[in-house]
Design goal:
With 1258 residues, the chain is mainly β. Helix content is 4%, strand content 44%. It has five helices and 93 strands. Strands 2, 5, 6, 9, 10 and 11 form a six-stranded mixed beta sheet that branches. Strands 12, 14, 17, 18 and 19 form a five-stranded mixed beta sheet that branches. Strands 21, 24, 27, 28 and 31 form a five-stranded mixed beta sheet that branches.
Length: 1258
């Protein structure tokens, strides 16, 4: 005998044998099980208790139920059986209890008005529906009545009654005019809950003849209209004010009953002039928060979802300036029945116990009655296992015949509740509904829930095992749920495996196996980070994940918890999100969500889009004074970057319209500023906001403000007195701006007097100029100068005086006592006596030293003279002359410099530089190698820098490992240019070192290598050097120099530069020293080397060249075109004719003075020097900026080589930028000055040539 169980609804939930709570409408069994198990009927769908239907449409009364076997249906109407077979207008839907009453084909809805109830029945019991009251909707017409016009005195109250017809359901009331426009309502005029229109006091504008009340019946979608009401308001003077009087409700108190859960509506409408204001209170309490609302201009108090606690006295108070009136509404909240515990279905096995509980509440308290299969339980068939105890039915030792459907009815005067609950008695062996070998996959460290859904009657016992032959699972590691589920709260890798669920009762036993797999959790190892980005920039969020290898993750990006915008600017990559061209609307939170079939992780980051602030707005000027004004403004949006400051600019529409100038700047926390003003300015202001990103657009300009005129506050700045000619003084100043004039008629009073002379000030008043020239002044004398501003209202304050000078003239005296001290072969020091300041006749700028090389002392060849200039600042009387050439003759002179220019030159001073060491020999060639000898040839040094005394030759052998042997030195006379070295070792490489000497020492050396031959028959080792290339688009010309025996076999190797591919080899036919590589790729860099076949296989060093770019088409050789040849012939003929004409004219008018011929053929190194170069502070060719005169002879050598002088001005700390140092030392550039022969007359002193004639033509 199984143990009996009492299931109490107050302590334990009713348990189905699936261990699931069964609701009254659903038994959650699988379909196969439902096909096998019997179940009493359950009503699943029914029409509402109060069912109002449209009389024009078919009536559908719903009744749906389920059960096993499927239930049959029957109906009662007004308490008696309703035989639908006898009424042709009534049908029942197949497999359903729903009735369809055909009204549209001749039926009358009023004929089917009544109370209907449905019964669903099978062999296990019968369930019944609620009593369904069916009533057709009604929308009757308004009764005809005669409406008299309403004549009302201004200020009186008025009520227009609507009195709509009684409909089902009640209509919705509203007032309109003839034009179907709603009448405006206010605190003075409003509609009451009963539909009447109330006027607290009438006004003349209330006069009209079309006050119309409308009633809308929603069920029938019809609107009924009352006849128009006329209102005429007549005025009486004066209008009498009245204290409030309640129009509705009347009296001082009233009562109101409302049902629990409904909406409570209380109304107070008052008359009075001025219009009263309504206020609501609850006596002894507060109005319920969150459920209280005021409507109709606070004339209606609305409380939703009322309960018994809302009962009480509610007071409305109407008040105006003359007094108040109040009304108390006593509210009682009643309650239709509502469930405390509704009965629930019971599924029991034979011999078990159970209870059905039906508990309800209401006001008044409802009565409880029971029915069995739709029949009052008192007259229902007896069941010994059943006992009724008020709201409870107790079942003991039930049998299969105890199955039935019980109905509980709870009712009071305000309504009823009806609930069906069945008792189903079944005897079934255990069944496991979970599929066999079901696979469960969970994430490590997460709960694992292994289902074992079961069914059986009596209730089976459930046990779990791990593995096929494992022991029963027990302990705190597991949680066993009543529905058979096994829970592993924290699943680990070692929990994976096979689990067995066993269900058993007295009728049998069954088991099932499930599989559990534990997966690694999904993690975001690189989360998106907070980003701040400027507008129109680019931003990227990373989301790098790690997941179980057997799970396939999907990554989704959200913006503000919604999908990303459908915008091509959003680029979703494998592990990132990139937003291009960011805009303000992209601001927000971006979330990366990673989903697998088992878990989901997410990470978010905020994107803040910053930009320059929006411009300020709403500028306002206040506190206007003559010299100040207050400006205020409202800041624009800072665009996520705080405003740091505001820049205020102004425009002077009077003097500089359209020009905005800086006024001031204030901190970003400040939105007002007091601005200083100048007189006689028509001000407008604008404000610019500044944040970390940049400046906003300017605000709109403020209103204009014109300040009053005044005399000037300031005088012109930057006043100067500088003469432009020896006999004048130019006074200049910076004129005042328009806003600085302070008034109309701006002028300047210019004053001057000679300094240190007891003279009066001389003044002149000028306007619209910024300089004044004083003529007839002595040369370079100091003057006191001042400039004062004035306008129509007066003078500015007395200006300060400045010292100026009248104009300068060229210095009159040359420096004297010029001395030169030669320090070494490349450096000399020059001294001179200063020029008296009076003879300078201007500001002393410094001294210029002109120096040039006359000739080299080591050879008598003449060369072009290059004159160099050094400038020394101030009154310095010495300087260094660097960069001289050794063993040379030089000349120099010195000139004083002022602001006007250079003075006369001192007499030329001649000095000579001593010898220096020579440069390296110009070349060294080694030829004619034999078994034991080599022939050396050399050239003398390009710059001997003195008298050569000898040459020194050093040489030593080099073995195969590049080690050097003993060094041999030979001294050679200076007049030799070749030498044969004998007694050398055969087949040996030698390295040679060769240099020249003067009396000062040895010069730099030149090196070379050569090899003696092995024997007379053996060929010489080849030597290839100077490999050159000339590349075209697809080919390259390779040429080289060769030293060695005749009939050498050459080859050319080449390949792509930087490539590791093998060299390509081309054999050169014969002994040519050039080769053409063909078939090259355009625009490609190649490497090339040349080799000669021999015993040692010597090659040249590598050279690199690049082919030209590919051309779109083959270029045509212009030289082969006929038109080009013809054009060149025509040009040649034209030139010949011009030459003949020039020659004829020359012979007719030319003159050839002897002086010109002598000048033209004179030695250029002894020509007189031109001293008209006024350049100050430069080291440059004096001829660079002057055109060549006809017949001038240009020296062939125009270069200065580095070895000519290794000295630098930097070595003397003087710099080379043409400026003065603080200590007065020279600066700057010194350069050659190419002297030209003086040319007399306008004609050339040379015979004409074709080239000169062509130049003249061009």
């Amino acid at each position: 005998m199984m143990k009996k169980m009492s299931i109490s609804t107050s302590k334990t939930s009713l348990v189905l044998f699936l261990c699931q709570i069964i609701s009254a409408l659903d038994v959650p069994l699988d379909s196969k099980l439902l096909e096998e198990l019997s179940q009493p009927p359950t009503i699943t769908q029914q029409s509402p208790k109060d069912y109002i239907v449209d009389p024009r449409e078919n009536i559908v009364i719903q009744c749906e139920a389920k059960g096993k076997p499927p239930p049959s249906f029957s109906w009662t109407r007004n308490g008696t059986h309703f035989d639908i077979d006898k009424d042709a207008q009534v049908t029942m839907k197949p497999n359903s209890g729903t009735l369809v009453i055909n009204i549209m084909n001749g039926g009358k809805a009023e004929a089917y008005e009544g109370v209907y109830q449905c019964t669903a029945r099978n062999e296990r019991g019968a369930a019944i529906s609620n009593n369904i009251v069916v009533r057709p909707s009604r929308s009757p017409l308004w009764t005809k009545e005669k409406l008299e016009p309403n004549h009302v005195r201004e200020g009186d109250s008025l009520v227009l009654h609507c009195r709509p017809p009684v409909g089902l359901p009640p209509p919705i009331i509203f007032w309109m005019d003839n034009a179907f426009q709603r009448l405006p309502q206010s605190e003075r005029v409003s509609q009451g809950l009963n539909g009447d229109l109330y006027f607290s006091n009438v006004q003349p504008e209330d006069t009209r003849e079309d006050y119309i009340c409308y009633a809308r019946f929603n069920h029938t979608q019809t609107i009924q209209q009352k006849q128009p009401i006329s209102v005429k308001v007549f005025s009486t003077k004066p209008v009498t004010e009245r204290q409030p009087v309640l129009l509705t409700p009347t009296g001082s108190t009233s009562t109101k009953v409302e049902l629990r859960g409904n909406v409570l509506l209380l109304e107070c409408i008052a008359a009075g002039l001025p219009t009263p204001v309504i206020r609501w209170i609850k006596e002894g309490g507060e109005l319920p928060a969150n459920r209280t609302f005021f409507e109709n201009f606070k004339k209606t108090l609305k409380i939703i979802d009322v309960s018994e606690a809302d009962s009480g006295n509610y007071k409305c108070i109407a008040r105006n300036a003359l007094g108040s009136v109040h009304h108390v509404i006593s509210v009682t909240v009643k309650a239709a029945p509502y469930w405390i515990t509704a009965p629930r279905n019971l599924v029991l096995s034979p011999g078990e116990d159970g209870t059905l509980i039906c508990r309800a509440n209401g006001n008044p308290k409802p009565s409880i009655s029971w029915l069995a299969n739709g029949v009052p339980i008192a007259i229902a068939p007896e069941d010994p296992s059943r006992k009724v105890d008020g709201d409870t039915i107790i079942f003991s030792h039930v049998q299969e015949r105890s199955s039935a459907v019980y109905q509980c009815n709870a009712s009071n005067e305000y309504g009823y509740l009806l609930a069906n609950a069945f008792v189903n008695v079944l005897a079934e062996p255990p069944r496991i509904l979970t599929p066999a070998n079901k696979l469960y996959q969970v994430i490590a460290d997460s709960p694992a829930l292994l289902d074992c859904a079961y069914f059986g009657s009596p209730k089976p016992e459930i046990e779990w095992f791990k593995g096929v032959k494992g022991s029963i699972l027990r302990g705190n590691e597991y949680v066993f749920h009543d529905n058979g589920t096994l829970e592993i709260p924290v699943a680990q890798k070692n929990n994976a495996g096979t689990y067995t669920c066993v269900a058993r009762n007295k009728l049998g036993k069954i088991q099932n196996e499930v599989q559990l797999e534990i997966k690694d959790p999904t993690m975001i190892i690189k989360q998106p980070e907070y980003k701040v980005i400027q507008r129109y920039g680019q931003v990227s969020f990373e989301c790098i994940i790690k997941h179980d290898s057997t799970l396939l993750p999907t990554v989704t990006w959200l913006k503000d918890n919604d999908e990303l915008p459908d915008d091509e600017r959003f680029l979703v990559g494998k592990d990132n999100l990139t937003i291009m061209n960011v805009t303000d609307k992209d601001d927000g939170t971006y979330t990366c969500i990673v989903n697998t079939t088992l878990d989901s992780v997410s990470a978010s980051a905020v994107l803040t889009v910053v930009a320059r602030p929006n411009p300020p707005f709403d500028l306002e000027l206040t506190g206007q004074l003559e010299r100040s004004i207050d400006l205020s403004w409202l800041p624009g949006d800072e665009n996520n970057s705080p405003i740091t400051s505001f820049v205020i600019e102004f425009e002077d529409a009077l003097h500089e319209p359209g020009v905005w100038r800086y006024q001031t700047e204030v901190p970003g926390s400040q939105t007002t500023a007091q601005l200083k003003l100048s007189p006689y300015v028509n001000y407008s202001f604008r404000v610019i906001a500044v944040n970390r990103i940049g400046r906003s657009q300017p605000s709109e300009p403020s209103e204009q403000y014109l300040t009053k005129s005044a005399s000037p506050d300031e005088n012109p700045a930057n006043v100067q007195g500088i003469g432009s000619e020896p006999d004048n003084l130019v006074i200049t100043w910076e004129p005042l701006k328009g806003f600085q004039s302070n008034g109309p008629g701006l002028q300047y009073k210019v004053s001057w007097r000679q300094k240190d002379v007891d003279d009066e000030w001389t003044s002149v008043i000028v306007a619209n100029v910024s300089k004044y020239i004083v003529s007839g002044t002595p040369t370079f004398v100091p003057y006191e100068v001042k400039v004062q501003a004035l306008n129509d209202l007066g003078y500015a304050p007395e200006p300060s005086e400045v010292i100026g000078h009248s104009g300068e003239d060229l210095p009159m005296v040359a420096p004297g006592n010029v001395q030169v001290h030669v320090i070494n072969s490349t450096l000399a020091k020059v001294h001179w006596d200063p020029v008296p300041l009076k003879s300078v006749r201007g500001h002393l700028q410094g001294y210029k030293v002109y120096y040039w090389k006359v000739q080299s002392l080591s050879r008598r060849s003449r060369r072009h003279v290059e004159k160099k200039i050094l400038t020394f600042r101030g009154n310095k009387t010495f300087g260094m002359l660097p960069g001289l050439e050794p063993y040379s003759s030089y000349k120099l002179n010195v000139r004083v410099v002022n602001g006007k220019g250079e003075g006369p030159a001192s007499p030329d001073k001649v000095f000579k530089t001593p010898e220096g060491v020579p440069s390296s020999p110009s070349f060294l060639k080694i030829t004619n190698p034999t078994l034991d000898s080599l022939t050396l040839e050399w050239g003398s040094p390009t710059h001997p820098n003195g008298v050569l005394t000898s040459y020194t030759l050093k040489f030593q052998p080099i073995n195969n490992t590049h080690e050097l042997g003993p060094l041999v030195e030979i001294r050679i006379p200076a007049n030799e240019s070749s030498l044969i070295l004998k007694n050398l070792n055969y087949s040996t490489r030698y390295k040679f070192y060769f240099n020249a000497q003067t009396s000062v020492g040895s010069g730099s050396q030149i090196t070379e290598e050569a090899v003696t031959i092995m024997d007379e028959v053996q060929p010489l080792y080849p030597r290839i050097r100077n490999v050159t290339t000339a590349a075209a688009e697809t080919y390259a010309n390779i040429s080289w120099e060769y030293e060695g025996p005749d009939h050498a076999n050459f080859y050319v190797e080449y390949g792509v530069a930087g490539s590791k591919e093998d060299w390509k080899k081309e054999i050169v036919n014969g002994s040519r020293s050039f080769f053409v590589l063909k078939g090259l790729t355009p625009g490609t860099a190649y490497k090339v080397r040349v080799g000669a076949e021999g015993l040692s296989g010597f090659r040249s060093s590598e050279d690199v060249f690049e082919t030209g770019p590919a051309m779109a088409s083959r270029q045509v050789d212009i030289a082969t075109q006929g038109w080009f040849i013809g054009l060149m012939c025509a040009v040649a003929l034209l030139i010949l004719i011009l030459l003949i004409v020039c020659f004829i004219r020359r012979n007719k008018g030319g003159k050839y003075p002897v002086k010109e011929k002598e000048d033209a053929h004179a030695d250029p190194e002894i020509q007189p020097m031109k001293e008209d170069d006024g350049t100050f502070g430069e080291y440059s060719d004096a001829e660079d900026h002057k055109p060549l005169k006809k017949g001038s002879r240009t020296p062939s050598d125009r270069t200065v080589k580095k070895e000519d002088s290794d000295d630098s001005l930097v070595d003397y700390g003087e710099g080379v930028n043409g400026q003065f140092n603080e200590d007065g030392s020279f600066i700057g550039q010194y350069s050659g000055k190419k002297e030209k022969e003086p040319a007399e007359g306008n004609e050339s002193s040379e015979a004409p040539s074709p080239v000169n004639a062509m130049n003249s033509f061009v």
